[in-house]
Design brief:
Blueprint: E1 5-11, E2 25-29, H1 43-57, H2 67-78, H3 85-95, E3 97-103, E4 110-116, E5 118-122, E6 131-134, E7 140-142, E8 158-162, E9 165-167, H4 172-176, E10 186-190, H5 193-202, E11 204-208, E12 214-222, H6 230-236, H7 247-256, H8 258-266, E13 272-276, E14 299-301, E15 312-319, E16 328-338, E17 348-355, H9 356-361
Parallel strand pairs: 4-17, 5-11, 14-16
Antiparallel strand pairs: 1-3, 1-15, 2-3, 5-10, 6-10, 7-8, 8-9, 11-12, 12-13, 14-17, 15-16
Helix pairs in contact: 1-2, 1-3, 7-8
Length: 362
C-alpha cells in the first residue's frame, strides 16, 4: 500500500543512530501538543512493544546500542507490566523528545505495510506441492564479512564461498531453474510459485500442513542482489498506475498468465532463504531485526541508517480502503524493530500488520 505520511522521531539525545553528512534528513523539535491524535492513542500497547525490544537492548547484544537507549530501557524494565495508557503516555513523554523528520525539506514520505502470510505446505515434494522453499546454501556469506578483495558486483550484499574463491550467487531465475539444488536444503514444499514469491517479499510466514501442524519460517539470508519491485516495473511500463498496485492486483496479474507472471517475478533477482523459527507464538509476529517478536500494528520497519533500533516513532498516515480495512487516518505510536532491503530513507516505514489473510488485506 503506497501512501504519504508525516513521521515523528523520538530520542533522548539524537534521533539518528548513524548520521552521516550524506544523509539529507533534518530533525526539528516539536511539542507533544503539536502531535495530532497523541493523547488518544493506546500508549500501553506501544510500551509493551517497546519493553519487548528492551529485552534485546539490555541482553547479549547490548553493546550494539547507544547508551541513552539502554538507560531508557532500564527505566522501562523497572516499571510494572501494567498497560495503563495514561501511565504509558507519561513514560514516553518523560523519556523522549519529539522531533519532526524532514527529508530534503519535505515532511512527506512513503509508508507501506507487510504481514506474515499463512500458507499451505508439504514436507515432501509432489505434483500438488512442486515449489521448494530453500534454506541458505552452503558457503553463503555477507560481502561485508569478506576480508580479502573479491571480484564481485558493487551492489551485491552476499556471495558464496567456493574452493575457487568467492562468487556471486545465482539470480532468482537461476535458482528457480535448479542452480542451488546441490547446495541448499529444502525446508518445505509449496503449491504455488506466487505464494513463494510473496513469502520472499514478506520475509517470514507460517506454514500449515495436512496433519494440522504448523511452523513459522523466517529470513535466514539472501542471494545478495538488490530488490526490484514488480509493482514499480508494471507502473513504469504503463500496465498499472500507482493507485492500482496492491498485493491483490499483483497476484491477479501474475496468475492470469503463469508464463508472463514467471518472467516478471524473475525480474526481481533477489532471492530469500529461510529457516525454521524458534519463536512460534501465534499472538505475536516473527522475530524482526531487533531479535524480538514483532507486535502486530506496533512494530515498524525503518532505515537503520537514520533511526535507532527500538526508537519510538509517531506515524501519521492514511490507510487505503481494502477488503480488510475501511481506510481512514492512522495516527499511532510505533516502535522501530525491523528493517528491509526496500526500506530506504528517513521518512520511509513498513508497518507490520500481523499474520494471515486479514492482516494481508489491511
Amino acid at each position: 500500500v503506497y501512501t504519504r505520511q508525516v513521521v515523528l522521531g523520538f530520542s533522548t539525545m539524537a534521533a539518528n543512530s548513524n548520521p552521516t553528512e550524506t544523509h539529507a534528513a533534518e530533525l526539528h523539535p516539536v511539542d507533544y501538543s503539536d502531535i495530532g491524535g497523541w493523547s488518544a492513542d493506546t500508549h500501553g500497547e506501544a510500551r509493551a512493544a517497546f519493553r519487548r525490544g528492551c529485552a534485546a537492548i539490555l541482553g547479549r547484544s547490548s553493546g550494539r546500542f547507544k547508551k541513552p537507549m539502554q538507560e531508557v530501557c532500564r527505566a522501562a524494565t523497572r516499571l510494572a507490566h501494567e498497560t495503563n495508557d495514561a501511565a504509558a503516555r507519561v513514560f514516553f513523554e518523560e523519556h523522549f523528545a519529539p522531533h519532526l523528520v524532514l527529508s530534503d525539506g519535505q515532511d512527506k514520505g512513503l509508508i507501506t505495510g507487510y504481514f506474515e502470510p499463512v500458507i499451505n505446505a508439504a514436507r515432501t515434494g509432489s505434483s500438488a506441492f512442486p515449489v521448494p522453499l530453500l534454506g541458505p546454501p552452503d558457503g553463503l556469506i555477507a560481502v561485508n564479512q569478506i576480508a580479502e578483495s573479491a571480484d564481485l558486483p558493487s551492489d551485491l550484499t552476499h556471495a558464496i564461498s567456493t574452493s575457487d574463491g568467492y562468487v556471486a550467487a545465482p539470480t532468482r531465475a537461476q535458482i528457480n531453474a535448479g542452480a542451488l539444488s546441490e547446495r541448499a536444503p529444502i525446508i518445505a514444499w509449496l503449491a504455488d510459485p506466487i505464494d513463494a514469491f510473496f513469502l520472499h517479499i514478506q520475509g517470514s510466514g507460517r506454514l500449515t500442513y495436512a496433519d494440522g501442524s504448523s511452523e513459522r519460517v523466517t529470513y535466514a539470508g539472501k542471494n545478495g542482489y538488490p530488490y526490484t519491485s514488480i509493482g514499480a516495473v508494471l507502473v513504469e511500463r504503463g500496465v498499472m498506475n500507482r493507485e492500482q498496485v496492491s498485493m491483490a492486483s499483483l497476484r491477479a496479474w501474475l496468475a492470469a498468465d503463469p508464463q508472463r507472471g514467471e518472467a516478471l517475478m524473475n525480474e526481481n533477482r533477489s532471492y530469500i532463504f529461510f529457516h525454521r523459527a524458534d519463536n512460534d507464538d501465534p499472538e505475536l509476529g516473527p522475530t524482526g531485526q531487533l531479535e524480538v517478536p514483532l507486535t502486530p500494528g506496533r512494530s515498524l520497519a525503518v532505515d537503520l541508517a537514520y533511526h535507532a533500533s527500538n526508537l519510538p516513532v509517531w506515524l501519521e498516515t492514511s490507510l487505503p480502503v481494502t477488503s480488510g480495512n475501511p481506510g481512514g487516518k492512522l495516527q499511532r505510536l510505533m516502535i522501530a524493530q525491523d528493517t528491509g532491503s526496500a526500506i530506504r530513507g528517513p521518512i520511509r516505514g513498513d508497518v507490520f500488520f500481523g499474520s494471515g489473510d486479514l492482516a494481508g488485506a489491511s
